[in-house]
Amino acid sequence: MNSMFTFTVILAVLPAIYAMNITSLNACLTKEQSLQVDCRYEAKSKEDLKYTFTLEEAQKPSRNIASNKEPFSQDQAFTKKVKVEVVKSENLVRLTLPQLEKGQEGTYVCKLEWPGAAPIMKSVAVYKGDLLACSAISLLIQNTSWLLCLLLSLPLLQAIDLTSL
C-alpha cells in the first residue's frame, strides 16, 4: 500500500518536472547598443510564470536586475533602466538594458518558476566586445551547429558563385 502511494506521487510529479525547461538563453546587442537577453522556455503549465534576472560577477555578490516576484530588491544600477517583456505566445522572457556599460558585464542568470515546480535557471556570459548583433543570422549562428549553418548557406554561396573558388 505504501509503495503504491509513492509510485502514484512520482507519476504525478514527473510530468511537471520535465515539462519546465529553459531551451535557450541568448545575449546580443541591438542597433542602439542595448543589451538584449532572450530567455526561451518550454512549459506545459498555464500557471503564472515568475522570472528573475540577476548579474553575477567574479568575487562579488550577485546583483538583482529585474523580477516579477514580490518582494524584490533591485540593484540601484538597474533601477528605471531595464525593461522586461514576457511573450507567452513565443515562450519568451526578454530583458532589455539600454547602453550596456562595463560595470554591467558578467554572467546574466535567468531564473524561471511556476507554482508547484522546482525553479529552473540558465546563465550566459555577457561582455560587450564578445556580443553579436541582434539579427536573425547571428541568432541562427548562436543556436545552430556550424555544419548545419554551412549546409544552409550553400545555396547562397552558389548564388554568388563562391563555390567555384
From TrEMBL:
Name a biological process GO annotation.
integrin-mediated signaling pathway
**Keyword Disulfide bond tagged:** yes
Could you tell me the keywords of this UniProt record?
Answer: Cell membrane, Disulfide bond, Glycoprotein, Immunoglobulin domain, Lipoprotein, Membrane, Signal
Which top-rank group of organisms is this from?
Eukaryota
Q: Name one GO cellular component term.
A: focal adhesion
Annotated compartments: Cell membrane
- Cleavable signal peptide: 1-19
List the molecular function annotations (GO) for this entry: GTPase activator activity; integrin binding
Question: Which InterPro entries does this entry report, sorted A to Z?
Answer: Ig-like_dom_sf, Ig-like_fold, THY1
Q: Which PANTHER family match?
A: THY-1 MEMBRANE GLYCOPROTEIN (PTHR19226)
What is the protein name given in its UniProt record? Thy-1 cell surface antigen
Query: Which species?
Result: Latimeria chalumnae
